[in-house]
RNA sequence: GCGAUGUUGGUGAAGUGGUUAACACGGUAGAUUGUGGUUCUAUUAUGCGUCGGUUCGACUCCGAUACGUCGCC
């Protein structure tokens, strides 16, 4: 029996929802869930140093197999002593398998049983990525949590297409599990199945038979509406073991995070806060603020008075607007710090609310404050 | 003073005797969900120096005038 890389312990469970507060021990320390994981695709959370990430309360960050494979190459990172040493980040890390990138970046791709043939997005070189290679690269990168190589099916997709895809993703999960060589890395399985409840159920149940140390819900946030997405989460989560972490991939809006936690999700990641930061949008306790808007030209007040981040404590909206309008890196950096801090703080509040068994109350407060609900997104 | 030439939006500028004046930048908004640091979408001149004329119709042709640029005395 393999030694488990992570140990997940539920501390409190919400009495009226499926939300839970837990601790997860990893080779690089203990983290608390539910949590939001900043995305650092190219072995960096764009613009932020590890120290800044610690300061804003980041626990786990993501990096990416596909991107690190292309640049600088997994051999380089392995030679550096792994991702942690390479980028000087000493908290837990997670790498995505590259499955999503094949879906999102490659214009030309050919999905076969053995893997995916595609042309890379940098120079068009013909490449081949398989479950075994993805795991091997992830073994070399050395993140605490690694992901199964899956197919993220487009939305919408026909039942027959999704069915075949799910079965292939399951075979790939098995192959990945067999290729996985390190017991200090936890390999998560990914539940796919599109919007089809029975396929989600089938996928979840089959993955559970393979006994992964954690599971994620994949294939959401690809164009479906909110109710559909929540249904997808429920359809998969229902069959997952209660005592293993659940990770909802690619989700990072406030409303979806509340909806996910309410349904028993422990981990989230999303590029949204950092991407919109680079384009001048801030997530604040008053809702989204687009700093490019003229109304902030001479607004010398703090971005979010309720926030304790460097950006909000030391700079004004007028200055941030100026930086963003001029395409200055400092503006992107400060807004990235802020948006991540906003979500990390939100997760802190969520964890506390679960501990104190008032999760729904917190959710109501946020929904009212941000005017969320139904189709209103944040 | 004489000759040549030019005057189109916030900017750089296309353009044709005939419905809505190209394009780019800038401006103003919006988007962004297992990363696009430089992305995408929408919108942005009721007007082509001014005044007359020719014409069914003129930013486009003609004349005058203002201003600019170059050359000559």
Protein traits:
alpha/beta; 15 helices; globular; RNA-binding; 41% helix; eight-stranded parallel sheet; three-stranded antiparallel sheet; 378 residues; 18% strand
Q: Which strand order do you get reading across the main beta sheet?
A: 4-14-13-12-11-10-6-5
* Spans where pLDDT lies below 50 across 5 or more residues: none
Our Rg estimate from Cα atoms comes to 20 Å
Please count the helical segments: 15
What oligomeric arrangement do these chains adopt?
A: single chain
Helix amount, in percent?
Answer: 40-55%
Number of strands: 16
Question: Quick check: average pLDDT?
Answer: 95
Biggest beta-sheet profile: 8 strands, parallel
Structural class: alpha/beta
Describe the global form.
globular
Distance between the termini: 44 Å
Structure in words:
With 378 residues, this protein is of the alpha/beta class. Helix content is 41%, strand content 18%. It is built from 15 helices and 16 strands. The chain has helices at 50-55, 65-70, 74-79, 83-87, 99-104, 131-141, 159-179, 197-209, 226-237, 254-262, 272-278, 310-314, 317-325, 329-355, 359-369, and strands at residues 7-13, 20-26, 29-33, 35-38, 61-64, 93-96, 109-111, 116-119, 126-129, 145-147, 186-191, 215-217, 246-248, 267-270, 281-284, 287-290. It has an eight-stranded parallel β-sheet. A three-stranded antiparallel β-sheet has the order 1-2-3. The longest helix is centred in the last third of the chain and has 27 residues, at 329-355. The radius of gyration is 20 Å and the shape is globular. The mean pLDDT is 95.
